[in-house]
Design goal:
Elements: H1 2-12, E1 29-32, H2 45-48, H3 51-67, E2 71-75, H4 85-95, E3 103-106, H5 112-123, E4 127-133, H6 134-146, E5 150-156, H7 174-194
Parallel strand pairs: 1-2, 1-4, 2-3, 4-5
Helix pairs in contact: 1-6, 1-7, 3-4, 5-6, 6-7
């Protein structure tokens, strides 16, 4: 865990969350990036969305309501035969009382760069609040800026919440390995963007 926190921490601290009491940004859209979604008839949508996606969509809805923003853009596609996260997000949002008329579904993009292009095509030069995982925000912002979009970062799902080194952080566990994997994925993605690779 201590290695995972050391790798993930700088990514998660790159952008602070939108704070209560801060001036409201003058935007008309909250954009939520996709994550995992595995729908089945035997489970509710809250179980079909992975933990990362659940944190993202709940934060998107919360910000939409708190800031009085009229449109929620839900992103995330999947290969044929797989659940599209944008569709799962929309089902959950409607279930939580968001009117269907407030939802915009972008369910074709299967990676961050394609999501950035789809958002740019939809919103043009308009600024928007971008909701994704804190560990993913640096790469998502860079991808958005690369295509000319104007995100206002609103990270969520932070996994490094305490900077103190506790004895339990010195013991190996699977959560530490998951953090290392997530961090390496993001650092490689950032390196690809810097190198001009989609």
């Amino acid at each position: 865990p201590i290695v995972g926190d050391a790798l993930v921490g700088p990514l998660e601290r790159a952008y602070p969350p939108l704070r209560e009491g801060a001036p409201n940004p003058a935007v008309g859209y909250v954009v939520v990036l996709g994550s995992g979604y595995t729908p089945r008839d035997s489970i509710p949508v809250t179980a079909a969305l992975d933990q990362t996606g659940l944190a993202r969509i709940v934060e998107g809805i919360r910000l939409m309501r708190r800031l009085g923003i009229g449109k929620l853009v839900l992103s995330g596609g999947a290969p044929p035969g797989h659940g599209r996260p944008a569709v799962g997000y929309a089902e959950l949002a409607r279930g939580l009382g968001v009117p269907a008329s407030s939802l915009v579904i972008l369910d074709q993009a299967q990676n961050t760069m394609d999501e950035a292009r789809a958002v740019r095509e939809l919103l043009g030069d308009d600024s928007f609040i971008l909701v994704t995982s804190a560990v993913h925000m640096s790469r998502a912002v860079r991808a958005m800026q690369r295509v000319g979009a104007h995100p206002i970062p609103a990270p969520t799902g932070q996994s490094v919440v305490d900077s103190a080194v506790l004895w339990k952080n010195l013991l190996p566990d699977s959560s530490g390995l998951q953090k290392v994997e997530a961090a390496l994925h993001e650092y490689l993605g950032l390196a690809a963007l810097v190198a001009g690779i989609d």
